[in-house]
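Weekly structure sync, notes
Attendees: PL (lead), two postdocs, one rotation student
Agenda item 3: pending single-chain targets
PL asked that the sequence for the first pending target be pasted directly into the notes so everyone works from the same version. It is reproduced below exactly as submitted, 619 residues in total.
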Amino acid sequence: MRGPNRFLTEEEKKNRPRITGKLLKRIFSYLLPYWPKLLLVLLAIVLSSIFGILPSILTGKIIDEGLIGQNLAILVQLILLSFVVLIVSNLIGVLESYLNTWVAQHITYDMRNQMYAHLQKMSHRFFTTSKQGDVITRMTSDISGVQSVIANTLTSILSNIAVLTTSVIAMYQKNWILATVGVIIVPLFVLPTKRVGKTRWSIALKSQEKNDEINQVLNETLSVSGQMLVKLFTNEKPEYEKYQKVNQEMTRLNIKESMAGRWFRVAMNTFTSMGPMLIYLVGGLLIIKMGVTSLTVGDITVMVTLLNRMYQPVNSLLNLQVDVIRSMALFTRIFDYFDMPVEVANRPGAIVPQSIQGDLAFSHVGFFYDPGQPILKDLNFQIPSGHSVAIVGPSGAGKSTMIHLIPRLYDVTEGKITLDGTDIRDIDLETLRRNIGVVTQDTYLFNGTIRENLLYANPQADEKQLIEACRQANIHDFIAGLPQGYDTMVGNRGIKLSGGEKQRVSIARVILKNPRILILDEATSALDSISESMIQDAIDPLLKGRTSLVIAHRLSTIMAADEILVVDQGRIVQRGTHQELVGQDGVYRELYETQFRRALEDQESRRAQPVTLQASLAK
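Predicted structure, written out during the meeting:
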């Protein structure tokens, strides 16, 4: 499809927004702070349209008073005046463009800030259920589209109205008969042009559909797996015939679209030529047959020029519906995001405790993502300050959901979680999260330096604190050995570091934060034994003196906990120490037999290997 799409697609027609006074009021609320500059834009548009008709009027005077009147002095004056008008008109156009762009850029600046601030407040649920591409599109393409609406659509409507109005007024001032002829015939020329364009648009859509069909055939049959399947089932001929048929249909449509374009240009040239011819004909009849002395050759020339000046504004205004619907749809999509409720927010009068001790308690806690499908059910347990709890259970038992509730990534749907006896929903959200450190299973690093990723937890930390945190996390020696040291770039999502290195950087980051409550998902099962051992050495000192919840994957961590909670299907089904639980029938013993014991035996086997090798060498 060539050129801008001036017609609504079927999807756009189906999903066209409902334009209400409330929607328009909300849109104009973004324009209101910039009303002085918008008034200047409007004034510039009016002046530009007025100056735009002056060259046509001056051309008529050049013909009548300069050329036909054979007055060289007036001819020179009029030509110089035309140059001055042209320069002033262009300067006004530059001013209008600057003001228009300035307003559009500042409105989109405001909307981007508002959208980003709003998205930052959305709960974790929003980001786990929304498509990331949709979120980014709202922040980029949709809000950038607002700039186009303000800078192009809105000013284009105002400019077209101004040009049309000034042209009609100027024509009626010259001769009302010729002006009426011009006003009547303009829509007759524009409407067929619009019809031809719509036909071509329809053909182009069908052509695009066939092109998509061809691409599908190529992707399926020319891929490695597709080609193998075609050959194994000896379907080369049927596939070729299918491709040939679609290719033939697309070729036919392309020819049809191209010829429609040719006829489109023929129609345009014919219609735009007929208008001036009619003006010349009627003007000639008025001068020659009716003897109208007030009408001159220059006046007829002016009328023809003004008539041509009216084509584009009329054509644009006839397509006003398309521009308005698309603009309203754009604002509606943005406002849909703005209107999404903030699920996790500070309550009025949220408490900011002077200090956090770290006494944590779950009281009849329940949680669901969707009503009728509970994830957690009636959880009750306490963790005194400085104590640790290991959470174990089969995959999908609800362990990760439990720890997400503590920093209020989600809010409980039943019961409450208290910190030092206060419901966490009554505590200032920033204060709560500042006192909670989380080492997640999926370690995330920003695409920056190691230093920048560490200081993300505590921007005020000095070099000494940075190094000490990395020593405790068992990662300083590695970082110091890099050519750029702490200024080494980690790449997108930390891709330049191994899994174990990323984990230790994330542990150092939490150490720099120095939280009262630590939430830890070890996630060492996928690492090699050396990385696992180094991470465990980093974790052990981190747990000391802090209230901690650990989703445990290593038996040593589980055994070191003050209490073990066994979770299954959203409930705590067992609790106690390792010795107590391993002696009971149930989920814990089954996990111990199938996972923990095997991991322990593998670990002991790895430790025994160097001793065995040393003994054999001694022999």
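Discussion points:
- The longest strand covers residues 360-370.
- The chain has 21 helices and ten strands.
Action: rotation student to compare against the earlier draft before next sync.
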